[in-house]
Fold this protein.
Amino acid sequence: MRSTRTQRKLRLGVTAALSASILALAGCGQIYPSTEPANGPANGTKSNIQDVVVGFAQQQLQAPYFAAMQVRAEQIAKEQGFKLLFQSANKDPVIQMNQMQAMISQGSDVLVVNATSVKGQKPMMIQIGSEIPVIYIDTSVPGTGTTSVQSDNLTIGRDGRLYTVSRNRVRVLTLR
């Protein structure tokens, strides 16, 4: 069973990423293919949140952590009133690339991406990032995208250790 603290951190992370996506839509500028990240929404700024389309390219849904991202993203989209296009690539970078291209074709204004392959996706993410703002959540492709919201795995590990020790009264070996 996941602790309440972990659930709050997860909800906060997903909320922050989707909020960053919405804030990215407030920018303006001309979108054109280049090696520079897009500096505004792919389809121009929108005055009505109901006209905003957010694409979410998730790497996989097998782990509860990733499945919770989908649930929370759908909740936020419903609460805020924007359209969410959600796809899971089952850890396949080729499938994820095709899904992102499809979301762009379907009118996404911004992409939220949990990348499947940090190194393998870089050339394609440079190209996609020049067309549409890309906000990474959890796993990013360095040198691409508009911004990234990632977990602090060191802090999560420390907190998990403390929680385990306090709950089970056991010693935990810390590797350095």
Remarks:
- Confidence is low (pLDDT under 50) at residues 23-33.
- The chain has one domain: 4-168.
- Helices lie at 4-24, 64-80, 93-105, 122-131, 153-168.
- The two ends are 28 Å apart (CA to CA).
